[in-house]
Write a structure and sequence with these properties.
332 residues; alpha/beta; two-stranded antiparallel ribbon; 10 helices; globular
Length: 332
């Protein structure tokens, strides 16, 4: 079985070459290898009401000397606003919660237009909103899980990206939250793996594959296993997120000068999930440091672009080799 280290391509030292460096005129000393960013930044963090999303919003506040962080949640926002502002102290004006449903384009556009009217652009988009269900054997319940999981983890993430792409700054960073369960080897069928892992995969082809999985999971068909798909919809959604990350990076680069400075990556944050068993999970606060590090990649950034990043800031070949998730004792 392939080890974790053998599927990682780049060392932390190489990755950090693209991080903000002490020589930048907008930096001053701070904790870890991070530097406090002096330039005013505007960020959007989806699914920020708890866990790594909430911790990411706080870490952004810590790392930015000025700016505005828009946190989204499906829940009521007043109590969350009060709590995070109390915790951030003098930086409280930098952060605020807004209600937004990643599955509701009207809700997304409402927030998008509000931010556009106030700031004109965003510099960071962190797509954390998502859900996980332990796979169920009952065909009807399983199909409900598949529908709900794909709607928010894949289609919802794409909704948010599509809404905010036109107002990205020319050095914006998009960070898509993935998982240790997003490795291509967890898809049983080799032909499906080949299609999903194809570097030339188009967005339309990817959408079609996701829809194929959903169709095989209906209570009427219920033949996903024979078709070569896993029961776990979360795995399919996160493999799709990793594939979409690469597709989107390629699309932006083809647009030329307007978007050539925009960088898209996905990341496994490594934090504890109450429904997913994994060895040696990080706390949400620890995981948020790597998420924010990826969101603060310095410009220009030639690498990583369209990659899947582990929580230790090493890059993982999600589309090759044996599953590192299985290799280090992680399971769902």
């Amino acid at each position: 079985m392939m080890s974790v280290s053998s599927v990682r391509l780049v060392s932390q030292a190489s990755f950090r070459q693209c991080l903000l460096t002490p020589s930048s005129p907008h930096l001053s000393s701070s904790r870890r290898w991070f530097k406090e960013v002096k330039e005013r930044k505007v960020a959007v963090v989806t699914g920020a009401s708890r866990g790594v999303g909430y911790a990411t919003a706080k870490e952004l506040c810590n790392q930015l000397s000025s700016g505005h962080i828009f946190c989204t949640t499906r829940e009521a926002t007043d109590h969350l606003d009060t709590i995070i502002k109390q915790e951030m102290g003098e930086k409280a004006p930098m952060v605020e919660f807004h209600h937004m449903e990643a599955t509701d384009i009207t809700s997304i556009m409402g927030l998008r237009n509000k931010i556009f009217n106030k700031h004109g652009q965003i510099d960071m988009l962190i797509n954390n909103a998502g859900m996980y269900f332990p796979p169920c054997d009952d065909p009807t319940e399983h199909f409900c899980q598949v529908e709900n999981t794909l709607q928010i983890n894949y289609w919802g993430l794409k909704n948010v990206c599509s809404a905010f792409l036109p107002m990205l700054s020319n050095t914006a960073r998009i960070v898509n939250m993935s998982s240790h369960l997003g490795h291509l080897s967890l898809i049983p069928d080799k032909d499906i793996r080949r299609e999903l892992g194809d570097p030339q995969l188009t967005e339309q082809q990817l959408d079609s594959l996701v829809l194929q999985y959903k169709n095989h999971c209906t209570a009427f068909h219920d033949d996903f296993r024979a078709a070569g798909w896993p029961r776990c919809a979360y795995t399919v959604s996160k493999v799709a997120v990793n594939a979409y990350t690469r597709v989107l990076q390629g699309q932006l680069e083809k647009r030329g000068n307007e978007y050539e400075g925009v960088v898209v990556n996905s990341i496994h944050p490594g934090s504890h999930h109450s429904k997913i068993s994994q060895d040696s999970p990080l706390t949400a606060a620890e995981a948020a440091k790597s998420v924010v590090s990826t969101a603060l990649l310095a410009h220009p950034c030639e690498h990583p672009r369209g990659k899947f990043i582990w929580h230790d800031l090493k890059i993982v070949n999600w589309d090759k080799g044996t599953s590192f998730a299985v290799g280090i004792g992680m399971s769902a």
